[in-house]
Amino acid sequence: xxxxxxxxxxxxxxxxxxxxxxxxxxxxxxxxxxxxxxxxxxxxxxxxxxxxxxxxxxxxxxxxxxxxxxxxxxxxxxxxxxxxxxxxxxxxxxxxxxxxxxxxxxxxxxxxxxxxxxxxxxxxxxxxxxxxxxxxxxxxxxxxxxxxxxxxxxxxxxxxxxxxxxxxxxxxxxxxxxxxxxxxxxxxxxxxxxxxxxxxxxxxxxxxxxxxxxxxxxxxxxxxxxxxxxxxxxxxxxxxxxxxxxxxxxxxxxxxxxxxxxxxxxxxxxxxxxxxxxxxxxxxxxxxxxxxxxxxxxxxxxxxxxxxxxxxxxxxxxx
Length: 319
Description:
Blueprint: E1 5-8, H1 17-32, E2 36-39, H2 44-49, H3 52-61, E3 69-73, E4 92-96, H4 104-113, E5 116-121, H5 124-133, E6 138-141, E7 161-165, H6 171-183, E8 188-190, H7 202-210, E9 212-217, H8 220-223, H9 225-228, H10 236-243, E10 247-250, E11 266-267, H11 273-282, H12 288-301, H13 304-317
Parallel strand pairs: 1-2, 1-3, 3-4, 4-5, 5-6, 7-8, 7-9, 9-10, 10-11
Helix pairs in contact: 3-4
């Protein structure tokens, strides 16, 4: 395999948290290696034309004269980010976040169409299922991570957001606590309108987490099982909360058993949610050792730089 090139995310006029995540990973890679960078394919009309079947046809007739490309995609619909570069190279590498079961058939088509020889997915269970059914590419599990240098944390006495539920909220839990939190003077931030982000921009998000005492974290199989297909995976919000020194209250995804050798999550109490949170806030200092342990664990073992080393080792072993 020749030296790989990396496709960089283009600047988007509309902010989305997924763009922040991809950009954070790309920048972490480039801090470690001086890879050749390629601008992201940016023609929405041609993207509609280049479906997997069409891409595969072009790949059959175009000579492979370039070194492989590495690129990151949040979902299968963005796999065409590699165009037109993947037309001219083989042994390309795709890092895919949302590899849910409903997309497995499309993932298989993409691997064939885009000359993917190595696929990295963030879900352990999806990696195992895809590995068992894909013959023309190597499949690896690479958990999500974060770049601690991107985040901040406030002194515990200065944290003024008591409870934060960012991203997709859990309606049942939210409805059980919202009024009581208000009556008890608990500063609780959440998604006011479905699909609308809690913080207006990246800077507000980083400082919002830094100001937060308790971060509610639930995996997709709890908040939206129809999409997850029952798969429980650790999302980036767990690690973002850790490096911001928030206490995580929620549900520990199954795969975190293989990532952490202790329990970093306070199990959420769906039977007495208000009493649980009030008790935690009253005795918050008792949880500081766990918060500090989570922080140290994250900055030493769960950075994007560490994940890039893992990817590099996997590629070296599978050449």
